[in-house]
Specification:
- By secondary structure, the chain is an alpha/beta fold.
- It is built from 15 helices and 16 strands.
- Strand 2 and strand 3 form a beta hairpin.
- The two termini are 30 Å apart.
- Bound molecules: pyridoxal-5'-phosphate.
- Homodimer.
């Protein structure tokens, strides 16, 4: 069976996520036969370096022997068990380790099975907390512009992806949106810290005015990922923590994308020296193997639900696969690798290499910015370097980079005009150089010509390379 055979069968029956399926009249679907380390291999024997960690989940490579072993051992013991009324060793051990690993005070772990559901848990828990403590009027959520928190209905509501919020407007919760501290948009001459600090004034005003009706503020700490890897300074998080305390509002950190070393520290909140009231984790939690998410919270929140049965104050949320043992085993193996191999330290020279390998792009006539936080590096293509004008989405410049990279053996999947690297941590310095070379060529190609808008009937999408 070749790529073509599998693609034909695929297109007969599948509907792919966040995809305009008509695109596949021109773009091949790439069926993957096997993975090893940073590499994915298709049925024709082509290899692709997975520069985006397969939607940011993979940290220690595909088919990692240490994670494989742990899952194999677990599957012979217990594949799954209901988590209500029952428990199991991997979920208990994982909870203990997450509590120990995260900032002091996050003492309770509630599980879901994907990132969006984890956001639903945090939002519901915050809302329900205020109800339980006799302040039901605190029911709204404050969120940043340009944010992304997933694609279930409440998660979309607290996000700010225009295509989603316009399309699904009729379904969404009413939220309060505050301008993002996104440093790409800072005035010339202003540093990240000063800009992030200045932008906090908007948040302060919103909380001052609305705190009586607000349950929580939700943010993607340090990097707004899906909307273009836009970044900001940790000072914003510190100011936000102080303000949430002052105004009696919860702080939800969505570290689903940035947790587990992506920002250079195990968790982004460490860089601000703060503890959120809810910490949402998923993606890299299982090393990219199995769906699992964890919402950590404080004892104060937990105690607001802890009461006699007939008070009906218990938290109302469950998923069939909550705390699945195989996923927990994969997570335990992942945490072992972080600890045993001192990954946060090991990543530092890799992050420097990403910066060095792409430094020349700063002078590219159509690159507005090369930005980096830890192991996330983004290169923003722009139509006008001086004004940082974006290319019209209809031109799909990112798609040209994506296609070029595939032809060179790399899975680089830009977010609109933003080419980025978010690689597995098992990448080598030489592989980083290779990615930088492929990205440079792709950016040259994509920005050199005027691109025809043959696919202009398609919508811009945050998670496709449009
Ligand atoms: C910051 C953030 N929150 C939530 C999600 C949603 O996670 P999932 O795709 O597992 O539902 C994502 C996914 O990209 C994300 O980046």
């Amino acid at each position: 069976m070749t790529n073509h055979d599998w693609m034909r069968r695929d297109l007969e029956v599948l509907w792919h996520p966040c995809t305009q399926m008509k695109d596949h009249e021109q773009l091949p679907v790439i069926p993957i036969r096997r993975g090893e380390g940073v590499w994915l291999e298709d049925f024709d024997g082509n290899r692709y370096l997975d520069a985006v960690s397969s939607w940011w989940v993979n940290v220690f490579g595909h088919a990692n022997p240490r994670i494989n072993e742990r899952i194999k051992a677990q599957v012979d013991q217990l594949e799954h068990v209901i988590l209500a009324g029952f428990s199991h060793q991997p979920v208990i051990e994982l909870s203990e380790r997450l509590v120990a690993l995260t900032p002091a005070g996050l003492d309770r772990v509630f599980y879901a099975d994907n990132g969006s559901s984890c956001i639903e848990v945090a939002l519901k828990m915050s809302y329900h907390y205020w109800r339980n403590v006799g302040q039901p009027e605190k029911r709204r959520f404050v969120t940043l512009t340009n944010s992304y928190h997933g694609e279930t209905v409440a998660a979309m509501s607290v996000g700010d992806v225009a295509l989603f919020t316009e399309t699904y407007q009729g379904l969404l919760l009413d939220t309060l949106k505050v301008p993002s501290p996104d440093c790409y948009l800072r005035p010339e001459g202003l540093g990240w810290e000063a800009h992030s600090r200045q932008m906090f004034a908007h948040m302060e005003r919103t909380l001052a005015e609305h705190h009586a009706s607000v349950a929580a503020v939700i943010v993607e700490p340090l990097i707004q990922g899906a909307t273009g890897m836009r970044m900001y300074h940790p000072v914003y998080l510190r100011l936000l923590r102080e303000a949430c305390d002052r105004y009696g509002v919860h702080l939800i950190h969505d570290e689903i994308a940035v947790g587990f070393g992506r920002t250079g520290t195990m968790f982004a909140c460490e860089q601000a020296g703060i503890r959120p009231d809810f910490l949402c984790l998923s993606k890299a939690l299982t090393g990219g193997y199995l769906p699992l998410a964890a919402c950590l919270t404080t004892d104060a929140v937990y105690q607001a639900f802890y009461d006699d049965y007939h008070t009906l104050r218990a938290f109302l949320h469950s998923h069939s696969y909550t705390g699945n043992p195989l996923a927990c085993a994969a997570a335990l193996a992942t945490l072992d690798i972080f600890a045993q191999d001192d990954i946060i330290e090991v990543n530092k020279p890799l992050a420097r290499r990403m910066a060095e390998a792409t430094a020349h792009l700063v002078d590219h006539p159509h690159v507005g910015e090369v930005r980096q936080t830890g192991m996330a590096l983004a290169i923003e293509m722009t139509a006008d370097k001086a004004r940082r004008t974006p290319y019209p989405w209809q031109e799909r410049r990112g798609l040209a980079v994506y296609q070029h990279a595939l032809s060179r053996g790399a899975l680089l999947r830009p977010l609109g005009n933003v080419v980025y690297f978010l690689p597995p941590y098992v990448i080598t310095p030489e592989q980083i150089d290779f990615l930088a070379e492929v990205a440079s060529e792709g950016i040259d190609l994509a920005t050199r010509t005027s691109v025809s808008v043959a696919l202009s009937d398609l919508h811009p999408n945050h998670r496709d390379p449009g």
